[in-house]
Amino acid sequence: MKINLGKSFHSKNFKYGGYSALVTAVVIAILIAVNLVVSQIPWKADLTKNRFFSLSDQSYKTMDNIKKDVTIYALYQTGQENSLIKEILNQYAKYSDKIKIKYIDPVKNPTFAQKYTTSGQTLSTGSLIVDAGDKHKVIDSTDLVNINYDQTSGQPYADSLIVEQQVTGALLYVTSDKSSVIYNLQGHNEETVPSALSKQLSAQNFEVKDLNLLTSSVPSDAEAVMVISPKSDISQAESEKLKAYLQNGGRAIFLMDILQDELPNFQALFNSYGVELKHAVVMDGDSSHNYGDPINLIPSFGDSDIVSPLKNNNLMVVVPGAQPIEEVSIKKRTIEIDPLLTTSSNSWAKTNLQSTTQEKESGDLEGPFNVAVAITDKSSDTNIKDTKIVLISSSNLISSQVAAQIPNNVDLVMNSINWLRDQTENISIAPKSLTSDYLNITSLQVLLLSAIVVILIPLVILGMGIRVWLVRRHL
Length: 475
Fold this sequence. Notes:
Blueprint: H1 5-8, H2 12-39, H3 57-64, E1 70-75, H4 83-95, E2 99-104, E3 128-131, E4 136-139, E5 145-149, E6 156-161, H5 163-175, E7 180-185, H6 195-203, E8 206-211, E9 222-228, H7 236-247, E10 251-255, H8 264-271, E11 275-277, E12 281-284, E13 296-297, E14 300-301, H9 308-312, E15 319-320, E16 325-327, E17 335-342, E18 347-350, E19 365-366, E20 370-377, E21 387-392, H10 400-405, H11 408-420, E22 432-433, H12 443-473
Parallel strand pairs: 1-2, 7-8, 7-9, 9-10, 10-21
Antiparallel strand pairs: 1-3, 3-4, 5-6, 6-22, 11-16, 12-18, 13-15, 14-17, 17-20, 18-19, 20-21
Helix pairs in contact: 3-5, 6-11
């Protein structure tokens, strides 16, 4: 049998085969070219749900204001760097040419960290050192993650990453020429500043000093006055000093707890700024607005800059044992009151503090209620700043036990303090959640998806194949 090679080059099979081979070669060449070009483009997209590998606007604004060189040392053994933390740190160096990242192996360089620590102190692997030459800040590895506790087993687990919070706070500290002073009111059996809040204040370059209004007025260097759960009322003389400070553009944050007896001088101060603390305990019967118990509120957020980072990141705060905050009927026209935290419509406030039931009773107040507000008293004098006050009707939200489980509570207070100082770019950065999101689907959805994958898609492919076969068979 003779084969006519010349004729075979002109057959339909050769033409179709050659065309297919040519198209395949062109497509492969295009893909290779595109990959070569794309690989040279320094562009990445963060497609994670909570923007895990992206920095916030606050961090970018902080870096825009940096005027001196800063080096961030990360203590990791060579080849054992934490990939998540490394990626976040790289974002700082990519954005600002003032920031350099260096990795130091503590095994190979055991004496490196000694100049950054006090006598006898050691830094654990994974710690960061933010050094600006004349000032430095040490961030221990344990301070880069929020620890939560499983409600069933009580076992601790890593809830969220706070690398950006800590690093940006450290950058503010080492590049700032002075510390911001907050005065903590004393003399009325107030609570001490909880450790979680104290740690965040230190990270953001705050110095906390005690203030006794019986012996002095509010010092001129006060960025704000902080009052945490006084157990007795201020005197008339103390109230006058506090009012004088506030009327002169002062700033203050009050975290008040309900007591058996009311505090009339504190109440009169709040009344003068358009609000009243009701002597009652708020309950919320909406299961999506309480944390396992009606008294542990999960309130909705308002529209203030204070809560927008928490709101935008779908985070929650828990406020145990709060009181209703109501606007008074008559207030100055210059006063603006912005709700920060609000309960659901299925909430009530128990006026009988001796009641043995959490259920709604006769005489209880109807919700919804504000349990935290931001107050601004606009100044008519251009030389005097606006007065700003944040009132939160429970200090329990930053207690050690609650803050350990709900770290966002401390962020709320830090946001409030920065708002008081007009430092909206320093509003606390939301933690990056490490909790996995699961897709919950019904049995019907499982059957539908299975039918599509197992039956419909194979049938479509089979049909396409049969069509191609029939077309080619009749060529």
